Amino acid sequence: MLLLKLDKIMEEKGLNSRQLSEMTGIRWNTIDDMKKNKAKHWAPDNLEKVMVALGIKDIEDLIEYKEDSE
């Protein structure tokens, strides 16, 4: 399964969902769902906005793959 590392990145940078929302123009509750990995899908333009706002150059710094534990 693919997971966003957004919670860790935001914590490291001292940002909350509302602050990142203001930086990106993405609704704060969408950011919160992305941070908690509750979002069912991620719009590519939202991922790009987050990467630009946070200064992330490599998508692997934002998304990780973990095997399902079934």
Widest sheet, order of strands: 1-2
| Whole-angstrom Rg | 12 Å
User: What's the main sheet like?
Assistant: 2 strands, antiparallel
Secondary-structure content class: mainly alpha
Number of strands: 2
N-to-C SSE series?
EHHHHE
Please report which band the strand proportion falls in: under 5%, 5-15%, 15-25%, 25-35%, 35-45% or over 45%.
Answer: 5-15%
Low-pLDDT ranges: none
How far is the N terminus from the C terminus? 11 Å
Mean pLDDT: 95
Q: Helical amount among residues, as a percent range? A: 40-55%
Number of helices: 4
| Envelope shape | globular
Keywords summarizing the entry:
single chain, 70 residues, mainly alpha, two-stranded antiparallel ribbon, 4 helices
Q: What would you say this structure looks like, in words?
A:
This protein is mainly alpha-helical and 70 residues long. The chain has helices at residues 6-13, 17-24, 28-35, 44-54; strands at 2-4, 63-65. The protein has a two-stranded antiparallel sheet with strand order 1-2. Helix 2 (17-24) packs across helix 3.
Write the layout of secondary structure elements.
Layout: E1 2-4, H1 6-13, H2 17-24, H3 28-35, H4 44-54, E2 63-65
Antiparallel strand pairs: 1-2
Helix pairs in contact: 2-3
TL;DR of this structure?
With 70 residues, the protein is mostly helical.
